[in-house]
What does this fold into?
Amino acid sequence: MVTITEAAAEKIKGLLSEQGNEGHGLRMGVMGGGCSGFQYKLDFEESAGDMDHVFEIDGVKIFIDMKSSLYLNGVILDYHDGLMGAGFKIENPNARTTCGCGESFSA
It folds into this structure.
């Protein structure tokens, strides 16, 4: 359903460790808003909800609610750290258009 690169997995595990939240997972979601109609949401949570899709990639637990899973199927989550900045990047094959910052899309 979702792919997480090795760089993204390492960054997520590092952030969880820094915050003392080992054992938590990454919540990936989609919500209305942003300049293109939908925007991505990433957050850490202790456990999954009753209706979540739950899976583990490279030692990282991923939680995705059923509605968001419609928009996140096939997504690749990556992490880049370079001279021009650092951050997570989402590549979404379901997006028809994206905004310039890459944080919102339309489906």
Notes: The chain is about 20% helix and 45% strand. The first strand starts at residue 2 and ends at 4. The mean pLDDT is 88. The first helix runs from residue 6 to 18.
